Amino acid sequence: MASSTAAEIAARLDRLPSSRHVWSMVVLLSLGGCFEFYDLFFTGYVAPGMVKSGMFAPASLGAFNVLGPLGVAGIGTFVFATFAGLFVGALLFGWVPDRLGRRTVFTYSLIWYSIATVVLAFQTSGFGIDLWRFIAGIGIGVELVTIDTYISELVSRHDRGKAFAYSQLITFCVVPVVALLAWLLVPLQPLGFDGWRWVVLIGATGAVFVWWIRLGVPESPRWLARHGRLDEAERVVTRIEAAVSAEKGPLRPPEVAPPEVQGGGTFGEIWQPPYRARTIMLSVFNFFQTIGYYGFAAWVPTLLIAKGINITHSLQYAFIIAIANPFGPLLGSFVADRMERKWQIVVSAICIGVFMYLFGSSTDTVALIVLGVLVTLSNNWMSFSFHNYQAELYPTRIRGRAIGFVYAWSRLSAAFAGLFIAFFLHTGGTVAVGLFIAFAMLMVVITIGGFGPRTRGLALEAISR
Fold first, then answer.
1. 394 — phi, psi (to 5°)?
2. Is the pLDDT of residue 94 over 60?
3. Do residues 142 and 89 touch, judged by C-beta distance below 8 A?
4. CB burial class (10 A; 0-12, 13-18, 19+) of residue 214?
5. Is residue 258 part of a domain?
6. Cβ contacts of residue 272 below 8 Å, gap of 6+?
């Protein structure tokens, strides 16, 4: 069979109906994402145990103790190291999925951070923990970029919103698992081994499953076509069509697709119209959105401790709040492809700001749990919406490096947000933290609401034009 053009490959993917086969690929990618989310979210849950073990004592931190005079030389350095690694991974290596392929990078970045996390679990100093957390973060940063590009290119335009919602529904299921394990293990020393170390090691098991996941997910046909590998793209799409038609019956003919505007696939393209305005807008957005997201998620137990709740109860309440994580994408899936993406981000940001301010001001235990759940639901609605949104705004040839660049600003801000939140918590308590996050969400509303383009229901190639 003669090879299709890149535009025809894209049109054939976009006309596919919702099917078990397509969703199985989304599920497999999401299972890979579960391990990265576990690794990412244990930051806040194991930190109190690390403190209890003396890992962040001044003598243990080495060079990181330079932050001591600012009052952030404890947990703040661990959060800083996590997001500094994510920043480097997304910014410096976001181009790798565009060069080597989505499937290859998905595989090896998962192995990278699994190995680094195992090494982290056996560190005996705060400096060693922070160093290996930074190294693991590089792998996580690349993985996050790759999954976003992968899903956006495999799923039809009519199901992209729902695909990202379901993907994060699956990946966020691991957050209550992290919280439960931390609640059960962190206060203890099973077999004489600190509980927080067990929590960390469990997260490193992702590498065991990586080849199984790899067997079930093909390379992105859009990426293959972009790199001139049209015969391979043809074979992948033909297999997908055969599986879908076996479920759904004969497929309708594909619509005539607009060809993707050609370019060299260089970093400089993200600074050319129309991508320049999108790059600036998404960079500003990402800088502020993560302050609300990880400013709460990575600090839940610590914020509760700051309100006078002991470590055991704070981890218990954090677990209850964490149970809400999968329900944000689940509830959001009902509007994921019905409501314009940019307005989903705006509404969820408003909710985060309001609920976070109330959380910071509250002293009642039940109210804290309810407000924590509401912040979590809003955060996760915004999360799947913007992961989808930013992947839609760039063409295949630069999607990985563009997402890597704009997403890197969220990692940079999260690294310093950890220090700022530690500072505000030290000087103004949880009220100051709530106000700081509410201000960040106001900036999100202004940026996306004022400057974000519309994308709902459009082919990726049409949006990129």
1. -130, 155
2. yes
3. yes
4. middle
5. no
6. none
- How many domains does the chain contain in total? 1
Amino acid at 138: I
Q: How far apart are the first and last CA of the chain?
A: 30
Q: What percentage of the chain's residues is helix, strand, coil (to nearest 5)?
A: 80, 0, 20
Considering the domain boundaries, does residue 260 fall inside one? no
Backbone angles phi, psi at 380, to 5 degrees: -80, -25
**Position 259 in a domain:** no
Which residue carries 């099973």 as its tokens?
190
Q: Are 346 and 359 in contact (CB under 8 A)?
A: no
The answer to whether 87 and 110 have CB atoms below 8 angstroms apart is no
Q: What is the pLDDT of residues 305-339, one digit of tens each?
A: 777 776 667 777 778 888 888 888 989 899 999 99
Cα–Cα distance, 271 to 98 (Å, whole number): 17
Q: Which two tokens stand for residue 257?
A: 């697709």
- Averaged pLDDT for residues 169-177: 87
Structure token pair of residue 175: 């957050």
Full DSSP string of 357-378: HHHHH---HHHHHHHHHHHHHH
Mean pLDDT over 128-150 rounds to 88
Contacts of 120 (CB under 8 A, 6+ apart): 128, 129, 132, 133, 136, 200
261 assigned to some structural domain: no
Chain mean pLDDT for the chain: 86
The CA–CA distances, whole Å, from 235 to 24, 30, 224 equal 18, 24, 11
Tens-place pLDDT, residues 262-304: 666 788 899 998 899 999 999 999 999 988 887 787 677 778 7
Find the CATH number of the domain harbouring 370. Answer: 1.20.1250.20
The per-residue pLDDT for range 219-272, each reduced to its tens digit, is 999 999 988 899 999 999 999 999 999 999 998 888 765 665 566 678 889 999
| Residue 205, both tokens | 């098991």
351, two tokens = 């909710």
Query: C-alpha distances in angstroms, 6 versus 19, 230, 410, 448?
Result: 23, 7, 32, 31
Q: Which residues contact 296 (CB under 8 A, 6 or more apart)?
A: 303, 352, 356, 359, 372, 375, 376, 379, 437
Look up the domain containing 71 and give its range. Answer: 6-253+267-464
Q: 3-state secondary structure string, 312-338?
A: HHHHHHHHHHHCCCCHHHHHHCCCCCC
Count CB-CB contacts under 10 A for residue 242: 11
pTM here? 0.82
Tokens 């081994």 label which residue? 193
Residue 376 CA, chain-centre distance (Å), reads 14
Identify the burial level of 363 via C-beta atoms within 10 angstroms of its C-beta, where 0-12 means exposed, 13-18 middle and 19 or more buried.
Answer: exposed
